[in-house]
Amino acid sequence: MRMHLPSGVFYQTYKQDQALWPTTFVKLRMWGLLVFLFVIFPQIASPYWLSLANLIGYTILSAMGVQLLIGYTGQVTLGHAAFIAAGAYTCAVLVLQYHIPYPLAFLAAMIVAGLWSMLFGLPSARVKGFYLIMTTMAAQFITVDFIITQYVSRIGERGHSFSLPPGTLSIGPWVIQSDRDIYYLMIILVTLSVLAMTNLARTRIGRAWMAIRDHDIAAEALGINIVAYKLLAFFMAGVFGGMAGAFWIASLFAVSPEHFTWSWSLWLVGVILIGGLGSN
């Protein structure tokens, strides 16, 4: 008598197939991870491990926009550090020069970085491949080496960098001044960003991006406005970059153009290539 036993997990509904945590084991594993990251780790970790975790979180936030452009939309970028720098300096200028509360400056940094990224994404409507690489590289040198170094860094006669002593940034009564404070901010931002990216990829917009990535001519034939969706992808990538920059200034005693070099842009491309294109 031959017996047939089920192998693997079988989904009977579309809702089950699209669930972020499809099985009980995955749910328990993810809740355990969240409890460890939010409750256990910040209590047992030394300052060294907290600072290392903050650096990892900054890398994750920085790589989000690169993943969206290259992994989801198929648009090459080699200048993403420019948009991270735009977010960092926008937030720093608003907080130090105009005394804007950190949360509002944070949101403004995301919007400014998104718009700046979309500006350099305009050539994607006409060019691709090597020529788009040149455009994104130009964003890096125009933004960091020219505009920020020669003009923005000199706002308020501060010279080359913006000093950010501990206690400068706060969210309501919560003053961000220690590695543990920065860690809590980082883990909240990373969690929200991963959830946002995951759900965005599952929407109509995300499906349109992946259609453009797989075959832009076929996507256009199906009625997808590839120019609009490419510009939206650059805008959202800039928003994630601005978030990373606005967060990272909390870890820096001084914001300087040396923190946003072209090598960091290359490093982020390497991160998503190793981690997997189009994966979360």
Walkthrough of the structure:
- The structure is a single chain.
- With 280 residues, the chain is mostly helical.
- The chain has one domain (53-275).
- Helix content is 66%, strand content 4%.
- The chain has eleven helices and four strands; from the N terminus they run ααααααβββααααβα.
- A two-stranded antiparallel sheet has the order 1-4. Strands 2-3 form a two-stranded antiparallel ribbon.
- Strand 2 (169-171) and strand 3 form a beta hairpin.
- It is globular.
- It starts with 13 loop residues before the first helix and ends in a 5-residue tail after the last helix.
What's the N-to-C terminus distance? 44 Å
Q: C-alpha Rg, in Å?
A: 21 Å
Count the E strands: 4
Oligomer: single chain
Helix content: 55-70%
Query: What would you call the structural class?
Result: mainly alpha
Please state roughly what percent of the residues sit in beta strands, choosing from under 5%, 5-15%, 15-25%, 25-35%, 35-45% or over 45%.
Answer: under 5%
Poorly predicted tracts of residues = none
Give the averaged pLDDT, no decimals.
Answer: 89
H-E order:
HHHHHHEEEHHHHEH
The shape, in one word, is globular
Strand order of the largest sheet: 1-4
Give me the number of helical elements: 11
Major beta sheet summary: 2 strands, antiparallel
The domain count comes to: 1
